Amino acid sequence: KLGAAVSTGFGHGQWWRAIAANFLHFVSAHILMNMLALRAIGPMVERNIGKRRYFIVYMLAGIGAVVGAVEVMKHREPNSDDFLVGASGAIMGLIGAQLAILLWGWTKDRARIAGRNLQMLLLVVAVLVVFDHMMPQVSGTAHLIGMGCGFVLTLGVVLIMPRRQRHFEM
């Protein structure tokens, strides 16, 4: 009732749930895990794309994850009372952003450290996908959509950045 995204969608002027759901969490362990993930991933992405672009990627990945997951929920079980809360989709957007940054560094500069970090991050993503599959209360759909949004948005940011700003810090 406070703003969770619900499986019935965003009808009747409740579009705000696509934003609010990113700031609500189910239990204290849920918010703690998201805060730890944000602390681990956020600084590298922010250093490389800047504060404003970081905010845009974070918010749009979170909103995209919520909207996409709700659409999938609507079609899977149209009359269920499932709901969705948490910043995980937005945080997975930052993982997607990190993947885009590392991929750009590896392909453009042939930076070995970017290649190694990219491989490690892909392993982390694989573990997360397996974990999401094993935990029915976790929305793997929101995670994957958020990661995809973050990847695409950041790749767009990287491609439109002025050339002099394309030096990335690993």
Total strands = 2
Low-confidence stretches: none
Q: Separation of termini?
A: 41 Å
**Which structural class do you get from the secondary structure elements?**
mainly alpha
Strand order of the largest sheet: 1-2
Shape: globular
**Rg (CA only):** 16 Å
Topology as H/E string? Answer: EHHHEHHH
For the largest beta-sheet, the strand count, sense and barrel status come to:
2 strands, antiparallel
Mean model confidence by pLDDT: 82
What fraction of residues sit in β-strands? under 5%
Helix content: 55-70%
The total count of helices amounts to 6
Keywords, separated by commas or semicolons:
6 helices; 170 residues; mainly alpha; 69% helix
Provide a descriptive summary of the structure in words.
With 170 residues, this protein is mainly alpha-helical. Helices cover 69% and strands 2% of the residues. It is built from 6 helices and 2 strands. The protein has helices at residues 17-20, 28-49, 51-76, 88-109, 112-134, 140-160; strands spanning 5-6, 83-84. α3 runs antiparallel to α6 and α4 (88-109) packs antiparallel against α5 (112-134). The chain starts with a strand and ends in a 10-residue tail after the last helix.
